[in-house]
């Protein structure tokens, strides 16, 4: 699976009364791969409001750095949802007509989150233009809180309702098609940051097997040689140790 694989959502609704699945291929378990992507989004959006609120008012360089990160994050989620829209919902509707209400919910949630992301992008720019003003920071952080709540609901709905159906109606070849599409996308965030976050989402006891199964040999080698250090540097920059803590440790 590629680190930028774009994937699905969920919520149990009453059946529309339409016929059950038609023309479904053998069931796969490929939606398990998407759970890692969802964990990444939950983590990054969950920590984003605090990152903004922790910026000292007037610290324009820190605000500029975080603004670039946040713009990359909103773009990453847009790309993820667009791929789902392109590859999942029409096929799910065609092959599992009884799930029409679930598909409608997924589309509605995608549009709602998309609107929220557009608002966040605007507030990011307002924050940087203000020179990291405290009021602009809180305006942005509040919007990030809201999208975090929306995303938590959406991802839970998708994993509960859409994933089992997608495993039943999409073939291995179609999942491979989605993976190939994702690999053609240029990551809007540093590649080794995304890869490291995904690896963190895999239980440590399963990490080596996951790398061997999901990453091509050149990528595994690159991560072992220098990618993990790139990830650690990126995380330290994203979550710097407060200066007062450092000074306190020297006393």
Automatic annotation (TrEMBL):
Residues 32-166 form the Hemerythrin-like domain. It holds the Pfam family Hemerythrin. It comes from the Bacteria. InterPro entries: Hemerythrin-like. CDD domains: Hr-like. This is Hemerythrin domain-containing protein.
């Amino acid at each position: 699976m590629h680190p930028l694989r774009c994937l699905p959502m969920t919520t149990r609704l009453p059946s529309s009364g339409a016929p059950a699945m038609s023309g479904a291929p053998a069931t796969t378990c490929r939606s398990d791969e998407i759970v890692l992507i969802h964990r990444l989004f939950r983590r990054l959006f969950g920590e984003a409001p605090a990152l903004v609120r922790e910026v000292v008012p007037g610290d324009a360089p820190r605000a500029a750095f975080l603004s670039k990160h946040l713009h990359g994050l909103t773009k990453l989620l847009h790309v993820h949802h667009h791929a789902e829209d392109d590859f999942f919902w029409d096929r799910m509707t065609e092959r599992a007509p009884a799930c029409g209400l679930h598909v409608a919910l997924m589309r509605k949630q995608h549009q709602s989150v998309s609107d929220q992301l557009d608002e966040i992008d605007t507030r990011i720019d307002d924050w940087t233009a203000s020179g990291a003003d405290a009021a602009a920071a809180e305006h942005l952080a509040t919007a990030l809180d809201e999208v975090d709540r929306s995303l938590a609901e959406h991802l839970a709905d998708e994993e509960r309702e859409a994933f089992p159906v997608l495993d039943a109606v999409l073939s291995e070849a179609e999942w491979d098609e989605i993976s190939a599409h994702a690999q053609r996308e240029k990551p809007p965030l540093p590649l080794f940051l995304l890869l490291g976050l995904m690896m963190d989402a895999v239980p440590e006891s399963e990490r080596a097997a996951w790398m061997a199964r999901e990453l091509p040999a050149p990528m595994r080698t690159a991560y072992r040689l220098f990618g993990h250090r790139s990830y650690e540097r990126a995380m330290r920059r994203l979550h710097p140790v407060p200066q007062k803590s450092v000074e306190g440790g020297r006393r």
